[in-house]
Amino acid sequence: MDYILEQIFEGRFRSGDRIDLGEVCEDLDVSRLPVREAIVMLERDGIVTSTYHRGVFVEPFDAKSIIDDFEIIGLLSGVAVRRLAEEQDREVITRLEGLVDELRAGPPNDRDRVVELVRTILTTEHRAGGSRRLRAELRAFTGYLPLVFRISSNRSHADTVDAHARVVRAIAAGDGEKAARYRVDDFRDAGRRVVEELERRGVLSDEA
Description:
Blueprint: H1 2-9, E1 18-19, H2 21-28, H3 32-44, E2 48-51, E3 55-58, H4 63-87, H5 90-105, H6 111-129, H7 132-139, H8 144-151, H9 157-172, H10 176-201
Antiparallel strand pairs: 1-3, 2-3
Helix pairs in contact: 1-8, 4-6, 4-9, 4-10, 5-6, 5-9, 6-8, 9-10
């Protein structure tokens, strides 16, 4: 999934392109089974379409779809952080505060480390605040998020830290509505930045 998404975000696979699954297997040195499983998941998320006897094709990749994806993730994540604020699990809150401190102290230019910490913060919040159903919905975006956050490289390290710090502060203060609003605002902003970068690269379809 990560590989195919990366090809799309880098503009190597464009809207309407047929994906040669044999080439994907060869590039990754894997059998067809995991590739087929990835295609099923990508088709579920509307990224590709599989047609019997014709193959797998990239769906139209447009700005509206990306904005909608970020809106949905933000709303779902907002439910989790709101519940965390209401439950006031001090152990989880302390862990989140520590992760934000790590994010703040880390080297701003180490993009991989920043993405790893952001992913850990989100995963911690979702596992602690999400129901079984909510966690299942959020897992659909697990492979998607690191790639899009790498793409939105025009966001400063300070802005990234502030976005997560204010959510955690609201959780610690027991203000679930504010935590949820901050999370949605953050994902909306990230979605806009990703769209701007993909438009700059010429990756988005004419339907954007």
